[in-house]
Amino acid sequence: MSSLRPWLEQNTAFVLFAAGLLGLVVGSFLNVVIHRLPQMLERAWARQYSEFAGQHDETDPPEQAFNLVTPRSRCPHCGHTITALQNIPLVSFLLLRGKCAACGQSISWRYPIVELLTGVLSAIVIWHFGPSAAGFAALALTWTLIALAVIDFDKQILPDALTLPLIWVGLLVNLYPNPLFTPLRSAVIGAVAGYLSLWAVFHIFRLLTGKEGMGYGDFKLFAAFGAWLGWQDLPLIILLASLVGAVTGITAIIVLGRDRHLPIPFGPFLCAAAWIALLYGNDITRFYLKFARISV
In the prediction, which pLDDT does 246 show? Predict the structure, then answer.
């Protein structure tokens, strides 16, 4: 590995191409996660409610396996099983002209967009961190953020199955003596501060307005960012997320005529802000301090 790393560092174009290609493949899997994980949660909740209400009958036939692997992907319109050749990231979509090979119904543009976004962001991450432990850890974080952002945009939920492991992994990658992004002390304080800060905002907002301004998933997600990046980056993340969220919400109301009473998920803005902080948090902070004429 020690002899391979200099070669990788000298062949930047190949490394970035490989990272982008890997991102395309992972993006295809993320589409499965985005589509199936909320359904898996809904089925689990329905099963738990049925058992709690005494409606479960042991003589009922067992449910068909439904997870991230089984059954194979199918067309939502006709049920046609998608073959391996029809599931090549981006390429299959273009060759099929965005239509099902069996019934000709349109395939959602979301699938190639998620694949392309994952590929581009993966290449940017490796370009920034290089083929290093920090780079591979940042890739894992980036992929998880993409899945969380789209799921929250669709369903307005941030699944514990993704947010809770993200907290623990964030603490693990910053273990002493070789923390990847921030010292362990900063990571632990960041996890606690991230959760408690939004928890406090949530309860204060509810006391003042009688409404819930965000969900508990946002607390856990913010805690994960603290665990990965440290408490120092939390103000930047919340500022960027709030700014972009406010601009997006106002634009949606004015331009698109969106009902201002409809909730807008905060998770996608948190994810975007955290990804920016992951790569450019220190640069943004230094620029702000220099702009504000505060010595560092």
Answer: 83
Query: Is the pTM here over 0.85, yes or no?
Result: yes
- Does residue 27 contact residue 114 with C-beta atoms inside 8 Å? yes
Rounded CA separation 98/108 (Å): 8
24: its two tokens: 């395309």
> Would the pLDDT of 34 be above 60?
yes
Question: Alpha carbon of 291 to those of 23, 121, 148, 235, 285: distances in Å?
Answer: 36, 28, 34, 17, 10
Per DSSP, the three-state class of 179 is coil
Element (H, E) at 143: helix 133-155
Let me know: does 118 contact 107? Beta carbons within 8 Å: no
How far apart, in Å, are the Cα atoms of 80 and each of 29, 35, 94, 266, 273?
A: 19, 17, 18, 35, 39
pLDDT confidence of 56, banded at 50, 70, 90? low
Burial 161-190 (b: 16+ CB within 10 A, else e): ebbeebbebbbebbeeeebbbbebebbbbb
The rounded Cα 23 to chain-centroid distance in angstroms is 14
213 pLDDT band, cuts 50/70/90, is confident
Largest CA distance in the chain: 73
Distance in angstroms (rounded) separating the CA atoms of residues 37 and 212: 24
Asked whether the beta carbons of 114 and 142 are under 8 A apart, the reply is no
- Tokens 């490796």 locate to 126
